[in-house]
Structure formats: structure tokens, C-alpha cells
From TrEMBL:
UniProt feature, compositional bias: Basic and acidic residues: 59-69
Upper lineage: Bacteria, Bacillati, Actinomycetota, Actinomycetes, Micrococcales
Coiled coil: none
Full protein name: DUF664 domain-containing protein
Top-level lineage group: Bacteria
A Pfam family it matches: MST
Record region (Disordered): 50-72
Organism: Brevibacterium aurantiacum
């Protein structure tokens, strides 16, 4: 299902809701009461459905049910939607929580993921503009995962850097209407680069799902 598809999203919401209701009906009254008493208020107050992140009508990935026009726009929409998903998974947490390595033995954290994506976006741009290579911001793709000394300033800088790098990469890719155009020293096609970008964000959104759930139990979407 396309993550921003109105039809697919509402269909999935209905399936999730039906499954949720069925599971509660089949559960004992004690289990039902235990579930509702342990559900954080922010879930049920902020969402129509207990396990959803935001109300379906407020989902920033909503596309009004209209499919994107053409291959390039489809690729961009997937990238935008996965970026939004990653951001949603980080909302409501402070720097200390975002820096938590919440799924041991992995040393990954949500803040580390954000910093990694800053470096990845910059790396992608360097693939396109091989003659104007820009240096790493945080010491490289792997070093970016280090969040030692995380504080509000580091978090603010990370968000700012990520927005800037995303905009720069998007602007460079937008220069090439032909998705078959070969770029940089590696001669990667625009199409392949875009698919790789989707793959990278989708993979790390999966990581973010688990990391966030282990921090405060919050799941959904």
C-alpha cells in the first residue's frame, strides 16, 4: 500500500479498527480493563483509534485520494511520506530520550538515525555533484550514530541540518527530468538514486518503529 494513499490508508484503518475491536471483544473483562487502564491518555485523546499516531484526517501523508502524476512524482511522494513518518516517530521526545539506545544490543537511537540521515542526504548529493564534494558534517555515516553529549542544542542542529540537506538533495535531483540520466562518477541513474532513497528511509522507519516503542510504548502508523 502506498503510505500516502487515502483509499489504502482508510482501508487499513478500518481493518486495524475491526481487528482491535474483535480482540477486545474476545478478551476477558479483566484483560479489557487492563488494556484501557495502561493506554497512555495521549493516545486515546489525540487519536480516533487507540493505536494510531494521529487522527486519519490529520495525517500529513494524506494525498486526498489522488494518485501522483507520473513516475518522478510517485518517487517524490514516497520519499516525502517516509520522511514524515520518521519525523512523527520522534515527536514528543526530548534530546535525552531520542538519544536512548532502546533496543539492546543495538547501539542505534532515534537521534542517531536522524544524524545518519543528514550524512546520507549529503552523500547522495555528492553522488550527483561529484566535482563539488562537500565534507561530512558529523564525521561520516557511521560516526553520525554517536549521540554522546546529546542536548537540546544538538537536537535543534540535527533537525536544521536534516531539513537543509533534504532540500539540497531534492533541488539537485529536480534538475534532471529524464530519470534515465546518469549522474556523477558512479554514473548512477536518477531513477536508481530515487529508489535507493526510498529504500533507505523505509528501512530506517522500521528501525524507528521499534526504537520508539521501546522508549515509551508508543506505536502505530
Amino acid at each position: 500500500m502506498h503510505p500516502g494513499s487515502e483509499f489504502g490508508r482508510r482501508q487499513s484503518v478500518q481493518i486495524l479498527q475491526a481487528g482491535f475491536r474483535t480482540s477486545l471483544v474476545n478478551a476477558s473483562s479483566e484483560a479489557q480493563n487492563a488494556y484501557m487502564s495502561t493506554t497512555p491518555n495521549r493516545w486515546t485523546k489525540a487519536s480516533v483509534y487507540p493505536d494510531m499516531w494521529v487522527d486519519p484526517d490529520d495525517d500529513p501523508r494524506n494525498t486526498d485520494g489522488r494518485s501522483p502524476d507520473g513516475e518522478a512524482e510517485t518517487q517524490l511522494e514516497f520519499i516525502r511520506d517516509y520522511r514524515s513518518t520518521l519525523r512523527m516517530k520522534c515527536e514528543g521526545l526530548d534530546a535525552e530520550q531520542l538519544a536512548m539506545r532502546s533496543v539492546p544490543p543495538s547501539t542505534m537511537s532515534l537521534l542517531g538515525l536522524l544524524r545518519h540521515m543528514v550524512e546520507v542526504e549529503r552523500d547522495w548529493c555528492n553522488w550527483i555533484t561529484a566535482d563539488e564534494t562537500r565534507p561530512s558534517l558529523y564525521g561520516g555515516l557511521d560516526a553520525a550514530f554517536s549521540t554522546s553529549g546529546a542536548d537540546a542544542d544538538m537536537l535543534a542542529r540535527t533537525w536544521s541540518d536534516l531539513a537543509a540537506e533534504q532540500a539540497t538533495t531534492d533541488a539537485e535531483v529536480a534538475k534532471y527530468e529524464d530519470l534515465g540520466t546518469r549522474l556523477g562518477e558512479s554514473q548512477i541513474a536518477v531513477r536508481e538514486l530515487q529508489i535507493h532513497r526510498i529504500e533507505e528511509y523505509a528501512r530506517h522507519c522500521g528501525h524507528a518503529d521499534l526504537l520508539r516503542e521501546c522508549i515509551d510504548g508508543r506505536t502505530g502508523q
